[in-house]
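USER:
Working in pairs, take the chain set out below, taking as long as you need, and write a paragraph about the fold.
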Amino acid sequence: MRRLLSLAVGTLAFTAAVPMHAQQDTWVIGPWTRASDAPVIAPIKDSVFTDPVSGRPVHWEALHTFNPAAIVRDGKIYVLYRAEDDSGEMQIGMHVSRLGLASSADGVHFERMATPVFYPDKDAQADREQPGGVEDPRVVQSEDGTYVLTYTQWSRKRNAYSVGIATSQDLVHWTKHGPAFAGAKGGKYDSLLYKSAGIVTRRVGDRIVAAKINGRYWMYWGEIKVGLATSTDLIHWTPVEDAAGKPLALLEARPGLSDSGFPETGPPAIVTEHGIVLLYNAKNATGDTRDKSLAAGAYSVQEALFDANDPAKLIARTERPVFKPERQFERSGQYAAGTTFAEGLAVFHGRWWMYYGCADSFVAVATASAN
């Protein structure tokens, strides 16, 4: 979330149609109501894990627990959350991130596993994830029940980051598949710096399942400009390009609005009767173009609607945040400008549950009607 995306392939052209706003009240998911007036996941200073890279015990969730993915399994909500240890300098991006797993029968009160389920290791992805870590997960299911994880691979040594793909049958044991765009277009995107990716899904009861549209899977990705990619197997992805051979840009910053800094992909998008709804994270600018009703640099949540048969066709976009920092725990911590950073979206007990990161420090949740 905090490292700005630099698209190495050049400046993107904005090609999406001018959005319409008349039907916001019918297609927008919401209104959102906080399910708790306190974080549902917070740091635990005495959680210990033996790091396989160093061989030493580390307090793996001592500093911050934030930016969660969410999915329903066996009648419970499971949340994969980013946890930062207390190593490194006391500034953003200087700690090691791992992913913890927590489950809840009511969506608010969680039982957490004692050790992380996903972390940097002595494996084929070591050079991309050390020192730095694995960050900001989103998770969906495939048709056969396999869990597919998109996450950020971050290496301070290489000063590089990319979207990684991993799969699991149980949310605990994971297989890493490497960068999403590895080898795409003959290796054209192998050096690209990119992050934040949410696969397009459809609702099957309480399951959120990856959706095929026109014979392919689709994924919104990126910050600064939100793009699109396709896949036939949910593991290997190819960016959708414009006529100039650059990644197609679907969402950009809008002066005077809460995304005046930039938009960033949020949770997995969902196909609804109105089209594909994408919740995205909107960063407010810090200069004169910012939304004056929000703190400079604050992150809120906006929504965009795309055509259900053409995921590249923008139909509408909210003008105001559907959710924004208001509570003290959303405006303190290591990002005090304020953050409600949505990454987890699930259907549970007849409602939408949106799990979000608070100020890069905690996990909280809001709900909305799923009818």
Observations:
- Helices lie at 24-27, 126-129.
- Confidence is low (pLDDT under 50) at residues 1-23.
- The chain has one domain: 24-369.
- The two ends are 31 Å apart (CA to CA).
